[in-house]
Design brief:
Oligomer: single chain
Distance between the termini: 9 Å
Number of helices: 9
Number of domains: 1
Strand content: 15-25%
Helix content: 25-40%
CATH topology: TIM Barrel
Largest sheet: 9 strands, mixed
CATH class: Alpha Beta
Structural class: alpha/beta
Length: about 250
């Protein structure tokens, strides 16, 4: 068994735009355990893969994602920040599922805030029920996750924790993480490394919740994952994380 399950955050977008088929394919080729993607609803209600609310700076257009139909979004030219237009384009969730489901793990983040997002995404995932053990749905919004869980019983549901305010000590961090995860009906909660400590991890685990992390992008943070026994995390530096994983002794 691998010591870590490493998830490529928005794929592995080196030289290609994030959240695109080429970025996800590169992550697969590099042997990531899974890929993370961001789901928003287009104007016509189709779930598409794009992180920001606005397409500005990532495409040759401007305005919010929800002002464009899915067909219009697919016609936009994508580019990585500071780079010329790329061959990548904004894919639909359906396209990503059809291309990658069953080939590696899928971490599907609902950006929201539309209440109907849960129903729409759950309907897309229903066709892939036989592969649910390789998928999980995440969000910062407990209500969205609880509705997905109701519609897709047995699918992995994980709550993302927002970064803590400076005044919060580890006891408050753990308390919030624990109870918001319960609100979501989640099996796991994802914390930023700045929120993690042995006390926080043990408090959450004592409540039969799994602890995962995101923004694991340097050696110091990788060592923290090892120290705390965090089995799965998202990274923006996939190659570094894979080198660290492969150099570990189990």
């Amino acid at each position: 068994m691998l010591p870590f399950e490493i998830v490529a955050h928005r794929g592995a977008p080196l030289g290609v735009p994030e959240n695109t088929i080429p970025a996800f394919q590169r992550a697969l080729d590099l042997d990531a355990h899974g890929i993370e993607m961001d789901v928003r609803l287009a104007k016509d209600g189709v779930p598409v893969i794009f992180h920001n609310f606005y397409v500005d700076g990532r495409t040759n257009a401007s305005g919010p994602v929800f002002a464009y139909t899915s067909a219009e979004l697919q016609e936009l030219e994508l580019c990585a920040p500071g780079e010329p237009p790329s061959e990548g384009r904004i894919p639909s969730l359906r396209e990503v599922l059809e291309t990658f489901a069953g080939r590696l793990g899928l971490e599907i983040e609902l950006k929201g805030p539309e209440p109907k997002a849960s129903e729409i995404v759950a309907a897309e995932l229903a066709s892939f029920r036989h592969l649910w053990e390789t998928m999980e749905v995440t969000s910062y919004e407990p209500a969205l996750l609880r509705e997905v869980a109701r519609r897709c019983p047995g699918l992995g549901i994980d709550l993302l924790q927002r970064r803590s305010e400076d005044w919060m000590k580890s006891d408050v961090v753990a308390h919030i993480a624990l109870h918001t995860a319960r609100l979501a009906g989640a099996r796991s909660t994802h914390l930023h490394p700045s929120q993690l400590s042995p006390e926080v991890a043990s408090t959450i685990r004592a409540a039969d919740l799994e602890v995962r992390s995101w923004d694991v992008n340097d050696l110091e943070t990788l060592l923290l994952m090892q120290q705390l026994g965090i089995p799965r995390f998202d990274t923006d530096d996939l190659e570094l994380a894979l080198r660290f994983r492969d150099g570990m002794t189990v």
